[in-house]
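Appendix B, Record 12. Input sequence as logged:
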Amino acid sequence: MAESEVPAGYTLLEGYPSVDDYVHLRAASGLTLRSADAGGGGPPGQLWYFLIADMATLPKHRRKGLADVILKRLLARIKSHAAKGTAYVTLGADVPGRRLYERNGFKDTMPKEMGMSLKTEDAGQ
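Logged structural output:
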């Protein structure tokens, strides 16, 4: 079977599952349980998953509390857009930013959860 072939007897559908299917799939798969609101069944325009990426401060502006203010504002905005309940906020941080994120409540997710990444080569360049 080629890498991109769907196994016999299965159909691959693009898009998102319904909220009910999402909640059922997480529960039946042994993943952390989520409510229908967390799965997107809340009011329109509200979300549950958030990713903070690429926070950076130029060297001449560091050690003045700017990153802390920016992160706190981002977290407040996330809270205002989150579905009822708890928002799930993830990030990938370089080592120098670790203390900033820990001061603002971020914790290592291991061993319960694991963050992973994959960097691919751009074949077009």
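The chain is about 30% helix and 5% strand.
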